[in-house]
Amino acid sequence: MNTESVSEPTLWAEIDVTGIGARPVQEQPHRKARAWWCGGARRYGPPVPRRRALHMNQFSRFAMLAAVSLAASIAAADSASAGGFAIREQSATAQGSSYAGAASGAGGPSSMFWNPATITTLPGWQNQWNASVIMPRSEIDPLPSTPTIPFGGSGDIAQDAIVPTSYLSYQLNERLWLGFASSTPFGLVTDPRQNWSGQVYSRSSRIFTANLNPIVGVKLNDWLSVAAGPMIEYFDVRLKNAAGIVPNDPSAILEGDDWGGGFTAGVTITPVAGTTLGIGYRSSIRHTLEGTLATPAGIFGPSALKFPVKTNLNTPDQVTVGLSQVITPALTLHAGFEWQNWSRAGDPAIVGPSGAPISHLPLNYDDGYFYALGADYRLNERWILRAGFAYEQSPIDTAVRSTRLPDSDRYWVSIGASYQYNEKLSFDVAYTHVFHKDADIRIVPGHQDYAGLPFVAEAETDVNLISAALRYRWDDPAKPFPAPIVRKN
Fold first, then answer.
1. pLDDT confidence of 8, banded at 50, 70, 90?
2. Per-residue pLDDT for 52 more than 50?
3. What is the reported pLDDT for 49?
């Protein structure tokens, strides 16, 4: 198909570029064509010995490892398994207990994702590399009231993905830590059959992110630590849908990307030995997504068109609370709570080259909530076993649920283990099954995606997660740390 690039199309019809939902094109009286855009541990034991200051060549290795972390993050393939299009799989260690206590240090170095202040519980110089394999299954089956039901269901729209993350912590002295985290906090890949009954509402969807987060942590005293750091995030989106209901109709494609910035902050409190409370915050990031809208012939005129568009998308800010309690020297219990402010995503306008709105992204999500309980049990000096259960309340309900993201409330059941190979090297593995509640899709008059075609369906989803991690301590645990410098006036 030939594509003509123009600075501003002559609007023969007012197209509704929704990205997540879909709405009908408002036709001019003299035109017959109709088109749609669908969017639609704390460790207890002997005191840590002091050791010598690290040399400058070690700082070089620190920078090199941070660069490796960046490369791993950019290589990620994303598939949402948390509420909305968020990705929870940031830690194999924390996954073993269904992320209970993730903000109070139960995830080891990877707890930095939820609460950067947990870095002050990590002695010396450590790295943790995680890889999570997300294996979802999601099918949308139209009901008889859908006029296009002869064209069939979606097939399995979910795509398997590998999500790598990495974390680096570096203790300068007894009070000060530096860290670096690379992660993929948001992502989505859904790909139904090319021709199906809901093709005007979605053909494929892809969201990819890479987030970089340097951290500074300070241990103020024996019971209180704080940390904070900036976040730099890349966000890329590509949404595709059919321009009509007939099989093999051409597609319209919306795509754009942006770099944005935010921050993370947190606190850990240890009121008594064996009890740790952690509270972490990740800010919203405002992305000004700039890209293009490509439409087939017959939408804006007799020729295919491609023109620039942009929109402002706010990712949700997030508060995570974790509590870890040592019951016996072998048993530690964890609890967790998380709030994601998805309601701030709102209904952002999409504007054309002239700056005038031509459509919008009707997200209109509610807030999301996550509740978790878990436990660690130390079998011996080498093995730790984990288990956890969680319930997640999705920000998406029937009022806004789309064919692109048929999300629903879910239950998480997890098991995991850690193996300490030697004083420097350890390994973690975890398995989770996520039980989604069946989800109704009701794109009928009054639904934000409605495009003139009633689409009523049921969606069934479940997810299997397998994660593994390698944790390595670069310095010699036997060497002492320098005390912080205190100057007298």
1. very low
2. no
3. 39
> How far is Cα 396 from Cα 364, in angstroms, rounded to an integer?
9
| Domain 12-473 fold | Porin (2.40.160)
Q: Are 61 and 77 in contact (CB under 8 A)?
A: no
Tokens (6 digits) for 273: 């030995």
> If pLDDT is split at 50, 70 and 90, which confidence band does 56 have?
very low
Domain extent listing, the chain: 12-473
Question: Which tokens hold the place of 345?
Answer: 């995503």
Quote the CA–CA distance of 240 and 253 in Å, as a whole number. 5
pTM score, whole prediction: 0.83
Q: For residue 326, what pLDDT band results from cuts at 50, 70 and 90?
A: very high
Residues contacting residue 399 through CB under 8 Å, at least 6 positions apart:
447
pLDDT tens digits for 256-306? 999 999 999 999 999 999 999 999 999 999 999 999 999 888 776 778 888
Measured distance CA(360)–CA(20) in Å, rounded: 9
pLDDT tens column, 73-103: 333 444 555 678 999 999 999 999 999 999 9
Left, alpha or beta for 30 (phi > 0: left; psi -120 to 50: alpha)? alpha
Amino acid 155: pLDDT: 95
Q: What is the rounded CA–CA span in Å between residue 434 and residue 417?
A: 19
Provide the terminal-to-terminal Cα distance of the chain, rounded to the nearest Å: 76
β-bridge partners, 281:
265, 319
Closest alpha carbon to 409 in 397, 401, 422 = 397
Number of Cβ within 10 Å of residue 482's Cβ equals 14
